[in-house]
Amino acid sequence: MRSRHVSGRNLYRNERGMSLVFVGVGFLGFVAASMLAIDVGMLMAARAEAQNAADAGAHAGATALAFDDYDDRSLTGPAVTNAVARAKANLVMSVEVSVDPSQGDVTFEEGSFGEMNRVKVTAHRTSARSNPVGLFIARIFGTSTSDIAATATAEASPADAMDCVLPFMIPDRWDEKTSPPFNSMTSTFEMFTNKGAPLNPADVYIPATEDNYTGYDPVLDRGTKVILKASNDTQVSPSIYNPIVIPGYPRGADEYRAAIASCAHAEFEWDQPITVEPGNMVGPTKQGIEDLVAKDPNAVWNEGCQCVQNSAFPISPRVRPIPLYDPEYFARGKREGRYADFKVANFLGVFVAGMVGNDVIAYITPIGGGSGSSGGPAPKNAFPYAIRIVK
């Protein structure tokens, strides 16, 4: 019988069992790849969700700053509370993020024109906040959680373009010098005599590009009731509206009425020339306003909160922009023989309450806008605000 004894030299050269080493090394590689595929992929998804939460919080904060209370930047003010609530409503891997204003998670920064009009929000899922993101495969290597945080900054900046405007305009407000004080129903803009000579004193209009702008303010004028009457020839009064043509749409009563009742999509920009409809359009105005009110019949203006209540929509369709025209530009054009020379000086946000007789009744309210296609900068005192994520 042959001996099965294996010498030490033969045992040293024996390769049996090496496959187990390769299997072990391969298994470690498989675990590492799994960790990369599962945990890293999950962390990337969590990071994206955290960024969404921060973006939503910053956007909500800037929106509240512009439309609720521009001056209240306290921890309990609408800008901060809305930012926190909106960020927390966006879960990260089904868990609420931590946003604590007392720890600097909601702050205000300087933005356009040197104003504190930016809201910065940081959303956390970290061990320090007791809500880190749990891991799976990495637990094998002793790492069970990971920290995730994201930051976003949104800005409430002046807007220079509007869509869905009501197809009539009123003059922007001026500094009444000829018959002070300014009265929204009886004042008329006067710079020249009937023969074209300069008046002394003359009414003064300072445009929205200047620091001492004389026009409407979304904070100071919020809730002001306005009563608008049909055009009376060339009289420039804050209570007199002039029907206008929507760019890209035909002239006429039917189109005019439809543009009041529903949104006529057309961009109006600051400093843009305005074409006037012939006639005062009293009938079409009344019909259009009645149709507009019928779209959200239960909405009312609340004097207490200075806001719209009982609307069936997040933003009532009865909240619309009105173009404001430059009264000085019109007065100078009239003096030089140009009968109806209008251009956009700003926009006014209003909630349309309805009609009383032939008069349009509305309340001034903040309103959102956008950036015009011309690419020019918005005037620093533009009435509408554009809300956008800046970083």
Report on this model:
This protein has helices at residues 8-13, 18-67, 78-89, 253-261, 282-294, 327-335, and strands at 106-109, 118-125, 133-134, 145-146, 148-158, 161-162, 168-171, 225-230, 240-243, 268-269, 273-274, 300-302, 307-309, 319-325, 342-356, 359-364, 385-389. With 391 residues, it is α+β, with helices and mostly antiparallel strands. β12 (300-302) and β13 (307-309) form a beta hairpin. Helix content is 25%, strand content 22%. The longest helix has 50 residues, at 18-67. Strands 7-9-8-16-15-14 form a 6-stranded mixed β-barrel. The protein has a 4-stranded antiparallel beta sheet with strand order 1-2-5-17, with helices on one face. It has a two-stranded antiparallel sheet with strand order 3-4. The chain starts with 7 loop residues before the first helix and ends with a strand.
**Strand content of the residues, in percent?**
15-25%
- Give the biggest beta sheet: 6 strands, mixed, barrel
Low-confidence stretches: none
Task: Give the CA-CA distance, first to last residue.
Answer: 85 Å
Count helical runs: 6
* Number of strand elements: 17
Mean pLDDT: 88
Overall outline:
elongated
Q: Work out the helicity level.
A: 25-40%
Written as H for each helix and E for each strand, in order along the chain, the element string is HHHEEEEEEEEEHEEHEEEHEEE
The gyration radius over C-alpha positions equals 32 Å
In short:
Helix content is 25%, strand content 22%. The chain is built from six helices and 17 strands.
Can you lay out the helices and strands and say which pair or pack?
Blueprint: H1 8-13, H2 18-67, H3 78-89, E1 106-109, E2 118-125, E3 133-134, E4 145-146, E5 148-158, E6 161-162, E7 168-171, E8 225-230, E9 240-243, H4 253-261, E10 268-269, E11 273-274, H5 282-294, E12 300-302, E13 307-309, E14 319-325, H6 327-335, E15 342-356, E16 359-364, E17 385-389
Parallel strand pairs: 7-14, 8-9
Antiparallel strand pairs: 1-2, 2-5, 3-4, 5-17, 6-10, 7-9, 8-16, 11-15, 12-13, 14-15, 15-16
Helix pairs in contact: 2-3, 4-5
